[in-house]
Predict the structure.
Amino acid sequence: MAGHIQDRWYKTETDANGKTVRVRTDRYGKGLRYRARYIGPDGTEKSKSFPDGQKRLADQWLAHIEADMSRGQYVDPAASRVTFRQYAEKWLNTQTTDMTTRESVESAIRGHAIPYLGPRPLGSFKPEHIRDWLSELEKAVPASSYRRVIYNNVSTVLNAAVDDGHLSKNPCHAQSVRPPS
């Protein structure tokens, strides 16, 4: 397994007879009881806490993490909390295309994507959010060719987020998302 579940309310000790017994800790009855811990691919320990009576949920969460790691689809929880605005700003600053292309991409993303998608954390993106945004974009930008350019720029930013491990898959590539024609 990718990690283990720690019960923070009880610890195991050996008594005078050599038997192992469970003993209450100082934390008994206070705070979240279970802590699921694992070592991420980057070598750092990650954890998530669960309340009393939710050990099965902690086991499921840990199994899900292990499955994601084995499939190569693991996304660091901290990386998935980065907002679209934060990531897009960073992405824009690292572009190495010619200046006119950079300016038009920056204008499209800052003017039409960041105002709507900006505050959303990357890890929470679903195809429905892209469909909603495209609906709003259709109201704001009448030219479908320009909407297509904006959509392609956003899809490129989200592709980079997938490559950088902030997102497991690009929601623009879902079958239910139809790019502007």
